[in-house]
Known about the structure:
The chain is of the alpha/beta class. The protein has helices at about 5-15, 55-60, 90-100, 115-120, 135-140, 170-175, 185-190, 205-215, 225-235, 260-275, 275-285, and strands at about 65-70, 70-75, 75-80, 85, 105-110, 130, 145-150, 155-160, 180, 200, 220-225, 240, 250-255.
Amino acid sequence: xxxxxxxxxxxxxxxxxxxxxxxxxxxxxxxxxxxxxxxxxxxxxxxxxxxxxxxxxxxxxxxxxxxxxxxxxxxxxxxxxxxxxxxxxxxxxxxxxxxxxxxxxxxxxxxxxxxxxxxxxxxxxxxxxxxxxxxxxxxxxxxxxxxxxxxxxxxxxxxxxxxxxxxxxxxxxxxxxxxxxxxxxxxxxxxxxxxxxxxxxxxxxxxxxxxxxxxxxxxxxxxxxxxxxxxxxxxxxxxxxxxxxxxxxxxxxxxxxxxxxxxxxxxxxxxxxxxxxxxxxxxxxxxxxxxxxxxxxxxxxxx
Length: 303
């Protein structure tokens, strides 16, 4: 990693670590405001034109797009009781769709658990995945990634009164049972710090939160911003350990080798950062419990 990139990653991680809970209400799932007046609306391009034969031309012409995301992650991807999709991932997808001329109500949302993301893309069940999707070499063998559009770091969530677990190195000594999502990067990384029998896996992190609440596990691990959403929903029952131990760049997953679509998404993200749309999307979602607005990370080269 080049030193300039490392500096930027460190800065973004520092901003992420500055996330704190605010008075948006314990247990609230309405991240976009009670009245809806501060609801973010991604701009929609009028009559955009794209080179024939590209993914952009196909999607723009059909006027719809299918997006894979999470349905159970407050602040990033959450399906509300009224069916409304909320979160930063959701708004990133809406920004991309809008640049294609596709309004928010023409997006078909598909619940995409961590273990299913590559398969959904390969099978053509979704046009792209925006789902706290960490870019790594193993996944890049099967799909292509645009972005990253956000940099997170893996952390631990425990009960609010837990003083024994102070970071990943304390887990094995404590004999802690740790929960994560099946097929996720965090579920693999945490194996360095615990005995294999103490790893509990579910398809979604909400089940991990339930297991922590009922004492079936001692900690939940995934990216810090995902955990912050669960902490915010817990009504004071959980806390974040705040000892991140990885770098997790979130990317937009697309069909392997679709360079033109990747470059289009990267250009869209760059424009959103420059015109303030990226910032507004953050402030309307994860920014509800954050003191800092992250900068768009350095984008990878499409290949």
